[in-house]
Amino acid sequence: MAEKKHIAFIHGFLESASMWQYILPNLSKSNYIIHLPELPGHGENHRVPATQSAEAWCEDILRQINLPGREDLFIVAHSMGGYLAATLATIIPNHIRGLCFFQSKAGADNEEKITDRKRAILAAQENKDLYVRTMITNSFTPESRIRCRLQLEKMVVAAQQLELETIVAAQTVMINRPDRVNDMKKRNFPLYYFLGGRDPSLPMDVMNEELKQLPGAMTHVVQNMGHMGYVESNKEASEFLQRILRADV
């Protein structure tokens, strides 16, 4: 019998490992050992590193995965989870068997995005609950806000339980994270992108610039999807992940 492969699903900012409940039931998981780490301060993980860096947060993720010494890891990571996964792949480069940027990217923030994040910190400090509601709502397309209103409200209520310190720390990590596009060019594992054509967090003009530098990556774009594809386009997201997992030989 073949040994089971390890796969980690890493959630994003303001989320928790529970986000994958929308995806995992649709996948054939019999050949995998599933890891569901939680970002510092998110979900049931109440630890936040003293140093707010991508490397420190990745070490926390690796602590939770506790990968056996010789095993390889396939990673599917949403949003901030993908930003961290790009760094994680530089920490254990010989143990990555595949990486899927699930509405995420390897590149660092540009100046405009950094300014937006600094404004976001101020907004959260002024009114955390309003900030959380606004950010999550704006991550959906206007149409999806109506169609997925129950899931959206559930996300808001859960995210409003996060501490302000966690929100500020996470934004700081994202602002300071290094650009990993060149590292992805040197990778020795397959790379995948699942993207939304109407994703306000990852505009396609920005993503196309990154993809031009990584011509070997397999990319799937859902044109009418915002940033919450696991809810907005659950069927297409599940089918895409099923395809890339089948290709993981």
Report on this model:
This protein has helices at residues 54-65, 80-91, 111-126, 128-138, 142-147, 149-159, 164-176, 181-185, 204-212, 229-232, 234-246; strands at 5-10, 32-35, 73-78, 96-102, 191-196, 218-222. By secondary structure, it is of the alpha/beta class. A six-stranded parallel β-sheet has the order 2-1-3-4-5-6, with helices on both faces. Helix 3 (111-126) crosses helix 4 and helix 3 runs antiparallel to helix 7. The chain is globular, with a radius of gyration of 17 Å. 39% of the residues are buried.
Which terms would index this structure?
globular, alpha/beta, six-stranded parallel β-sheet, 249 residues, 11 helices
Radius of gyration: 17 Å
**Helix percentage range:** 40-55%
Sequence of strands across the biggest β-sheet: 2-1-3-4-5-6
User: Tell me, what's the shape?
Assistant: globular
Uncertain stretches of 5 or more adjacent residues: none
What is the H/E order?
Answer: EEHEHEHHHHHHEHEHH
Q: How far apart, in Å, are the first and last alpha carbons?
A: 15 Å
Overall residue-averaged pLDDT value: 95
Briefly note the structural class of the backbone. alpha/beta
Largest sheet: 6 strands, parallel
With helices defined by DSSP (H or I, 4 residues minimum), what is the helix count?
11
How much strand? 5-15%
What's the total count of β strands?
A: 6
